[in-house]
Amino acid sequence: ASVGVAASGARERAELRTTVAAMYGYGQYGPQLTDGAQTQYAEAPGMYGSVPQSYMGPQGLTAAKAGLPPTKHPGRINFTAVLICLLAPTVLFATVSGSLSFPIRRESPVLSGMLVIAAALVVVACVYLAASTAYRRYLGLTRREPFWYVFLGATMLLSFVGSYWLGETNWWNNVLPYLELQTLDARYDVDPATTLGQQVMDAGRVVFAEGTHLDVTRSIGFKNVQQYCVAPIVHNVTGVQPASYDFWAIGLNCCTGGAPDFHCGDYSNPKARGGLRIMRNDQRAFYRLAVQQAEATYGIRAEHPLFFYWMVDPSLELESYKADARKSFFLGNLSFFALQLLLVLVGVVVYAKFDPRPRAPGPTVPPTAPQRQGTA
């Protein structure tokens, strides 16, 4: 009987050494275990004196054998990744929209183009990294979670497209007209009855002589997707009809086209006698067609027509281009930052609530040690 008790105690001690060695792999408790021994421990439901597998994570032993770090706790937020996802698209948006909106585009076009190309390459790299990580995770070749990589790639692409659109719109509608008008002269007290268009070809801002007004009765519109409206600027105090109607007020979609009902700009303000020159070549051609239509309709001549926005103070309007350019840039960047912040917060909630990684089973209570039966 004493021999049986001793053999049973030896087996229990051997099992205890096997358990501890499987927990630590090898070392101070004896030689390194074979894969079979580790597998036997990993598949054991719960041995006396052992630590349940759930305490080590669902893939603890497999990760240790493969030399990989254990999987992080599901739902744990990587704040570094969150911060990068918030700031990187915002910085890219400001860089691209600023390169396309500010005078650097005209003063140093090479530098502006290089900044935009560099931003595009960064976006391509982010998208490639996101796709590569997601594909490798799908094949089981990596334990890296692709969620924030995909999020960063998608928002970087959105940032580039939005910033490019903002920069182009701001440049053509505000910045370029301001820069070009700044290079042109300002003319004052211009009499359209005695001044020809050729004499003020270099004028960007014109203040006409007292008594100048719009001849709405000879207004007309030319339709090409939009309605291009024109009305002659006249100064017929003496009742003499000018030999050539070279000064025209213009506007988009502010007349019916068929009837003389021009209502563009400050047409109804009696103090208005200023004009700001149109600088968009794509629109100037359609206004020229409208003038040709007016020549044929009213039997008048316009040898060198110049086109102006009709207003009270053209100098004040010119400064508004500059103010609108700054306003568009800052509001656009602020709006994108707010959108990006909202997307990041949604991403954090989705990642924490619907984390795709497998969750470890809850901790289990180790089985109660068997009672030893004494033998006589």
Strand fraction band? Answer: 5-15%
* Low-confidence blocks of residues: 26-66, 68-74, 372-376
Radius of gyration: 39 Å
State the major sheet.
Answer: 8 strands, mixed
Count of helical regions: 9
What general form does the structure show? rod-shaped
Number of strands: 8
- The share of residues in helices is 40-55%
Helix-strand string: HHHHHHHEEEEEEEHEH
* Termini Cα gap: 7 Å
Mean pLDDT: 81
Category by helix and strand content: alpha+beta
Protein described:
The chain starts with a helix and ends in a 23-residue tail after the last helix. With 376 residues, it is an alpha+beta fold. The protein has helices at residues 2-24, 35-43, 60-66, 79-101, 104-107, 109-139, 147-183, 281-298, 314-353, and strands at residues 185-190, 203-208, 213-214, 220-224, 226-234, 247-252, 274-277, 306-311. Helix 4 (79-101) runs antiparallel to helix 9 (314-353). Helix content is 51%, strand content 12%. Strands 1, 2, 3, 4, 5, 6, 7 and 8 form an 8-stranded mixed β-sheet that branches.
Concise summary:
With 376 residues, the chain is an alpha+beta fold.
Primary descriptors:
376 residues; disordered C terminus; 8-stranded mixed sheet; alpha+beta; 9 helices
SSE blueprint:
Elements: H1 2-24, H2 35-43, H3 60-66, H4 79-101, H5 104-107, H6 109-139, H7 147-183, E1 185-190, E2 203-208, E3 213-214, E4 220-224, E5 226-234, E6 247-252, E7 274-277, H8 281-298, E8 306-311, H9 314-353
Parallel strand pairs: 1-2, 6-8
Antiparallel strand pairs: 2-7, 3-5, 4-5, 5-6, 7-8
Helix pairs in contact: 1-2, 4-6, 4-7, 4-9, 6-7, 7-9
